[in-house]
Structure formats: C-alpha cells, structure tokens
Amino acid sequence: MNKEKIAIVILNWNGRDLLEKFLPSVIMHSENAVIYVADNASTDDSVAFIASNFPTVKIIQNKENGGYAKGYNEALKQVDEPIYCLLNSDVEVTEHWLDPIQSVFDAEPKTAIIQPKILDYNNKNYFEYAGAAGGFIDKYGFPYCRGRIFNTIEKDNGQYDDVMEIFWASGACFFIRKSVFESLNGFDESFFAHMEEIDLCWRAFNRGHIVKYVGISTVYHVGGATLNATNPKKTYLNFRNSLFTLTKNLPGNIFFLIFTRLCLDGIAGIKFLTEFKPKHTMAVVKSHFGFYAQLQPMLKQRQRLKKIGNDSSSGHKYYKITSIVWLYFVKNLRNFHDF
C-alpha cells in the first residue's frame, strides 16, 4: 500500500520562542513528513531564526496576519502533499505519532479529517482543553469533548485510547486530506480565529465525509499561548463564531434555534457578571452585534452551501446531546462517560 505523504504546516506569528522550544520535537519525530512553517507577517526574527537553525524546514511567508483561517488558506496553496497536518506552534509531538494517523488515512478513503489525543503540556497526565479526545456539539452548537466538558478536564487513564468517529477535530493538531480541504474551499476567513475548525468539520460532515479521533497517537499542547482564555477577545470570537457556524450549517428552520441560543448566551453573560468578569460580559454582548452585522452574508453562505449539497446530506443528526449546558450546570454531570 502506498503511503500518502504528510505535510506538517505550522502557522507562526511572532512565535520565535515557541518555535525554538517545540519545533525540534516535530523535526525529530516526523522523519517521513515534509515540515513547513507558514509565517503570518511576523515582526520578530522568526523567519531568520528558522532559516538559520532549521534548514530542512520549508518557509512560506504570508503577506499579512490574517489569523488562523486566512493564514492557512493562503499558505496551503503552496503545499502539494496530499495530507495536511495543521499543527499549532505550541505543540510537542511524540515518537511515532504520525504512524497511526497515516495507517487510518491509508486504510479508510472516506476518512477525511483526523485528530490525535491532545494532552496538556504543563500537566501531562491530563487532557488539554482544546480538543482533548475528540469534539462534539450539542443541538445549540455548544462544543464539548471527550475528556473536557466546559472547564472540567479529565485525567488520562487510557479511557480514550481508541479510534472512533467524532464530530469535530481540534485546530491545535488537525489532519485533513488536501482534496477535501480544497473541495470545501478551506476555512471561513470571516472567523479570523477560533471555531473555524468546527465550521469546516460540519461542512465536511454535511458532505458525507468522516472525522475521526485516533487516540493511539499523542501530542502535548500548551494552549492559550497565542490568545489566553482570560482574554475577552477570545470570548468574543468563540460566541460570535459559534453563531456563524450554526447559521451556516444547521439543517431545517434555523430561526427558533438561533433565538434560543441567543437567550442562552444572555445567561452566560449574566454568569460572567456574577464571577466579576464584566469585560467578558461585554464581549458576549459585542459578539451578538458582530453576529448581526454579518447575518446577511452568513445567510447567503447558507443558501450557497445548500445548493452544493451541504445540508445534512449525510442523513445523520449533527448532535448526540440536546443540551450540554443542562447536563453540566443543572444535572451536575461532569465527565463524558456520565452522559
């Protein structure tokens, strides 16, 4: 069986210190892959540092910092390998991490997207927030993971050392076939950053593609190295982009569900106030206005996607749980295995 070549593409913006720390592990343990650093118009010496210290790494220089979505869309136009691995610059990989991923892609032509097990670099016995052991969403678009429900993080006891179908894969370490990425027109650049991978996975799901978690491959992610969870901008992007994703991809009549989601977001804003986080409350409010400002373009995207068959043509529901908010905050269920 011929192995399809993997391109590891690391998006960088002023991340010279992260590259110095984490790029060596990628080079050491990825001998059969082609490694790229896609630089998003950094103003530090990242590019010169890579050229001087890692001559085997190919450098792609974007003209501007367009965030995660535009940055990868532009860079991947210059990558010819049939499988992309989009890897955050704050990820440490492990020995033979690519082998299980490669095996699944080679054996399963319908599998389009894969995520490995993502553990916390700073607390290596625990899962990492951004992706953990594979992602899902509830009926209202709230994301959760095996190994991470809201801010409850599970210890890794081997409970997710499996291979299974999931709904979304984490952008921290995101494998996708080049042909699928191109057929879906890549990431939605209006997202800038955060949740664009969920949107892409939902569009792939609606076209009948399969997303998988491969837990026998492990990486360690720092998380928050580029935009910390305490930053209100992250709150803004997460709430706004979640609404973008729902509007574009929900099957059937969207308006009642979107209205319900807006009410739930209002409750989240009140919760931030009770936690003395007024800037995050304002971020939720601003996210709604950001959503309204882009509602018309999102509805146009929705209609365009329907015309090309992107309307739950897979025949399966996008969610397994109606409300993760209800189960977590009301029923007090904390771990994935409790559901």
Structural class: alpha/beta
What is the percent of helical residues? 25-40%
Q: How many domains comprise the coordinates?
A: 1
Report the total helices.
Answer: 11
Order of helices and strands: EHEHEHEEHEEEEEEEEHHEHHHHH
Radius of gyration: 19 Å
Could you give the count of β-strands?
Answer: 14
What's the overall geometry? globular
Beta percentage is 15-25%
Average pLDDT number: 93
Distance between the termini: 40 Å
So what's the oligomer here?
Answer: single chain
Unreliable segments of 5+ consecutive residues: none
Main pleated-sheet profile: 10 strands, mixed
Give your account of this protein's structure.
The chain has one domain (91-339). Helix content is 39%, strand content 22%. It is built from eleven helices and 14 strands. The strands form three sheets. Strands 1, 2, 3, 4, 5, 6, 7, 12, 13 and 14 form a ten-stranded mixed β-sheet that branches. It has a two-stranded antiparallel sheet with strand order 8-9. The longest helix has 20 residues, at 255-274.
List the helices and strands and how they pair.
Layout (H helix, E strand, L loop, with lengths): L5 E7 L3 H14 L4 E7 L5 H8 L4 E5 L4 H9 L7 E5 L3 E3 L4 H10 L3 E10 L2 E5 L7 E3 L5 E3 L2 E2 L2 E2 L9 E4 L6 E5 H6 L12 H11 L3 E12 L10 H18 L5 H20 L3 H16 L1 H13 L16 H7 L9
Helix pairs in contact: 1-2, 6-7, 7-9, 7-10, 8-9
Compose a concise summary of this entry.
The chain has eleven helices and 14 strands. The chain is an alpha/beta fold and 339 residues long. It has one domain (91-339).
